[in-house]
Amino acid sequence: MEYIDNLPAMDPMRSQKMTFVQLIVPAESSHRAVSYLGELGLLQFRDLNADKSPFQRTFVNQVKRCAEMSRKLRFFKDQIQKASLMSFAHPAMLEDVELEVHF
Predict the structure, then answer these.
(1) 49-77 pLDDT tens trace
(2) What is the biggest distance separating any 2 CA atoms in the chain, rounded to whole angstroms?
(3) Looking at 4-101, which runs of residues are DSSP E strands?
(4) So what family is this one in (predicted)?
């Protein structure tokens, strides 16, 4: 606790002292970990790549792949409808998924 007591004064709007930490989380579990930590409401996240454009970020390739898959699924859906083929999925149970890509 001595370390926390010797921290410099924080922003006057803060009610408690804060500690800056860096979490290193494997990419496979990062989404779940960040979501869970965010729901706790005890953390504030800082973007360490603020100087990079959206196209230089590490997740850009994953977003591009999702956008390409969304395009392919729309194409197949349109082709199935044009051919008047019946879908075996239960339409009442499955909702259309809209993927939005913002850069």
Answers:
(1) 888 887 788 778 888 898 999 999 999 98
(2) 72
(3) none
(4) Belongs to the V-ATPase 116 kDa subunit family.
- Expressed in angstroms, the distance from the first to the final Cα of the chain is 42
What is the helix (H) or strand (E) element at residue 39, kind and residue range? helix 27-40
Q: What is the pLDDT of residues 7-39, one digit of tens each?
A: 555 555 666 677 888 888 888 888 888 888 888
Q: Where are the domains of the chain?
A: 2-82
For residue 48, what are its two tokens? 């360490």
97 is written with which tokens?
């998924």
What three-state secondary structure class fits 52? coil
How does DSSP classify residue 12? Answer: T
> Which position has the token pair 């898959």?
69
pTM (2 decimals)? 0.41
* Dist CA 80 CA 74 (whole Å): 10
